Amino acid sequence: MAEGHTKPLDTVYANSAREMRQLQAQVRVLEDSVLDIIERQSRPTSEEIKKLQDFDLIWQTLGGLSIFFDNLREQVTTTDITDIDRATSSVTLQKLRDRLRERGEMFEM
């Protein structure tokens, strides 16, 4: 693997977290737009339609992140471990935290 293509894990994690925060912000904007349209009970404006097109970008981004994390997982050797309880301790959604703490074989397709 070429030196220019490697990155420390903390950089990979930071970049991934940034991507997810961006998705979170985009969904918030979309949620506000959808609520405005529903409350108004009228057709969306052209500006709102442009915002709603972000659903497709979010969908594509989530798909890309899934592929990225699958590819990262394949690079991990069986001797590498992580403190999953520590990594998930700040996740506020209980069901998400529980899913993240499950063993990998439960998620094999």
From TrEMBL:
Keywords: Coiled coil. Residues 13-40 form a coiled coil. The keyword Coiled coil applies. This is Uncharacterized protein. It comes from Tritonibacter multivorans.
